[in-house]
Structure formats: C-alpha cells, structure tokens
C-alpha cells in the first residue's frame, strides 16, 4: 500500500491527476475500439498509456469501471464548457441554444467513446451500469433546468420537460449512431441547425 502511495506521489509531481486519468481513458477507448472490450486487459491499458500498473489500479480496479470514467469524461467536458459559456446570460432560449450546440459538439468529439458506451453498456456490472445511468440523468437535468426556467419566464410553452430533455440527448446520440447515414448529406453544423429548429419549434410559445 505504501509503495503505491509513493508511486502516486512521484507521478503527481510529473503530471496532474486529471492528465493521468485522461491518458487511461483515452488509451482504453482506442484499445477497446481496435481490439474489443474482452480482448483488452488493464495491464495492456496501463502499458500503452505509459502509466504504472499500481497507479492505473488507483483509478480503476476492473475494466468495467473504465466505461464509467469514459462517461464521466464526456459529462465533465460538457459541464465545464457550458458553465463557462452561459455565464452572465439570462435568456433561457439563448442558454438552451448554447447548451445544445456544446453537447452535440462534445458528443461528436468523443464519438468513439459514445459508441463504446452504447456497445458495451450491457456487459457492465451493476454498480458501473448504475453509475453510467446516473451520469446520463445528470446531463438530462442540465437541459431540464434550462427548459424549466424558460417555462417559468414565459419564454417556452408548457412541455414535458423530462421527455424534451431526453429528446435532445438522443438527437446528439443519433448523430453518432447514424453518422454513416447523415454524413452523406449533412455536416455537424447543419445537423445542429436542423435539430435546433425542431427543438425551438416545440418549445416556443
């Protein structure tokens, strides 16, 4: 135990915890996509990431936990970007537009990770699956709060807030899941514009 702590201390002098975590997640994503989930070991992830095995085990005890880290990575990127972008904005519609654009772009940037989550979520153990579901709900709540604010201010008409928020999430995921179809005629930006039209048409009073 003490050896692990010493290695963590040395590593932390070289790179931040966030950087180490991201190296593990990014390496795992590449290996899963290339070799498959079952054929990839934590030892191989550790080696390819250039992170010692004790440090890797500090972050993940089993492969299923890496799927949780992948989901957390996508969510944290979205939350951090959104907090920065909507600071000082009072108009709920403007907030929603920014949130939708950011989420779609984040999902597109992490599309390989998003596909892995869809492909391998059934193979996760119950605690990891529950965590992934919890994180997805956390994303939904971001959209729900903005929509609820818009309804309270009279900017948006009354709607099923939970359903609308999840529709937005699924629109973003559809870009990844059905990209083989949409990329033939749409850029990401055009896809976002069309889906924003659909969302705002539903919510505007």
The H-level CATH homologous superfamily of the largest domain, spelled out, is Tetracycline Repressor, domain 2
Q: Could you name the CATH class of the largest domain? A: Mainly Alpha
Radius of gyration, in angstroms, nearest whole number: 19 Å
Structural class: mainly alpha
How many domains comprise the coordinates? 2
Low-confidence stretches: 1-11
Which descriptor suits the 3D outline?
A: elongated
Order of helices and strands: HHHHHHHHHHH
List the helices and strands and how they pair.
Elements: H1 2-14, H2 17-35, H3 42-49, H4 53-59, H5 63-85, H6 92-109, H7 111-120, H8 126-152, H9 161-177, H10 179-182, H11 188-203
Short description:
The chain is an all-alpha fold and 205 residues long.
Describe this structure in words.
By secondary structure, the protein is an all-alpha fold. It has 2 domains: 1-61, Arc Repressor Mutant, subunit A (Orthogonal Bundle); 63-205, Tetracycline Repressor, domain 2 (Orthogonal Bundle). 79% of the residues lie in helices and 0% in strands. The chain has helices at residues 2-14, 17-35, 42-49, 53-59, 63-85, 92-109, 111-120, 126-152, 161-177, 179-182, 188-203. Helix 6 (92-109) runs parallel beside helix 9 (161-177). Residues 1-11 have low confidence and may be disordered.
Keywords for this entry:
205 residues; Tetracycline Repressor, domain 2; Arc Repressor Mutant, subunit A; 0% strand; 11 helices; elongated; 2 domains; mainly alpha
